[in-house]
């Protein structure tokens, strides 16, 4: 082994740099995702909110929307406390989230629920991945992510109970939304 290689091998990683950057990226993408979720439900409620014939669906959406507001508030606080740069894509998620919610709601209650089921399935996987990556690194953040993940799983189950899978062209709709969510996650982690 050359001197240079030996030096490289024995040199410890710069303390905390990678971990901190990774955690900042996690907070950034989660903040963006919770914002997107709030906007999706706002879009759905803008279409369905005043429809008295759909009051059960609307009540379920309102309940989920309130929980998303709580999630967003928590990540707003983390962004500020930890001085994490928020995503520059916020205006995009503002428009895209609302449009996705409104468009699926215009297709009907079941399509709105299919949207929720698809989004929450991706978010469940996303949060599960973060929990695994965090390990013991940041117990406070991990606890937050675990709590919110449980809410997202409950949202997915609510959406399925409300007939998400009976939406017209369910597979196509669900698949397209999942692709969009994964792309949004990838972009918001970096940007
Ligand atoms: Fe959420
Ligand atoms: Fe959710």
How would you explain this protein's 3D organization?
The protein is an all-alpha fold and 191 residues long. Helices cover 81% and strands 0% of the residues. It has helices at 3-10, 17-48, 55-81, 90-107, 109-134, 139-161, 170-190. Helix 3 (55-81) runs antiparallel to helix 6, helix 4 (90-107) packs antiparallel against helix 5 (109-134) and helix 5 (109-134) packs across helix 7 (170-190). The longest helix is centred in the N-terminal third of the chain and has 32 residues, at 17-48. The protein is elongated and about 50 Å long. It starts with a helix and ends with a helix. One fe (ii) ion binds at residues 34, 37, 68, 71, 148, 152.
């Amino acid at each position: 082994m050359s001197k240079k290689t030996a030096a490289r091998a024995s040199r410890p990683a710069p303390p905390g740099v990678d971990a901190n950057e990774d955690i900042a990226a996690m907070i950034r993408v989660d903040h963006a995702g919770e914002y997107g979720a709030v906007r999706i439900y706002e879009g759905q409620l803008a279409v369905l909110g005043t429809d008295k014939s759909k009051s059960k669906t609307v009540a379920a959406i309102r309940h989920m929307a309130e929980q998303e507001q709580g999630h967003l508030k928590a990540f707003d606080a983390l962004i500020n406390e930890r001085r994490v740069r928020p995503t520059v894509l916020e205006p995009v998620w503002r428009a895209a989230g609302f449009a996705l919610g409104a468009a699926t709601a215009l297709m009907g209650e079941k399509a709105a629920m299919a949207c929720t089921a698809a989004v929450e399935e991706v978010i469940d996987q996303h949060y599960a991945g973060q929990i695994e990556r965090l390990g013991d690194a940041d117990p406070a953040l991990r606890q937050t992510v675990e709590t919110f993940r449980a809410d997202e799983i409950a949202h997915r189950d609510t959406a399925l109970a409300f007939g998400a899978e009976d939406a017209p062209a369910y597979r196509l709709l669900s698949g397209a939304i999942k692709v969009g969510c994964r792309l949004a996650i990838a972009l918001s982690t970096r940007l």
